[in-house]
Design a protein that fits this description.
Shape: globular
Distance between the termini: 32 Å
Number of domains: 2
Strand order of the largest sheet: 1-3-2
Number of helices: 5
Radius of gyration: 16 Å
Structural class: alpha+beta
Number of strands: 3
Length: about 120
Amino acid sequence: MKRNWDVIREELTRLEDLPNTDSMLTLSNFTQDQAGEYSYHMELLIEAGLVEGKMLRTLGGGPVDFFARRLTWAGHEFLDAVRSDTVWHKTKKTFAAKGLEMTFDLVKTVASEISVALIRGVAGV
């Protein structure tokens, strides 16, 4: 399965939007028809250290649910870089125009540069 950066951004945003520290994001918070995709991406986020959480698996090893408690510092930093819809769309457009694959470090760098350009009012960004 390929990474879907929109799903990653959605999961990070929904986790940050939890009302308090006792709340958790679980697979039941998402549509059932995309359960495999959401589980896969949450596992990636946990592995990358952006989310503190646990995966529940079947005996065969496939994910059946997850429990995400909170974003880590790195998770907050990444989400801060891509939170703005304007920045996010410009970031994806930049990668598509240049024919490059989106990697975590590059996404964060490009999104941050776009944010700085927007703050400075640079034309064409």
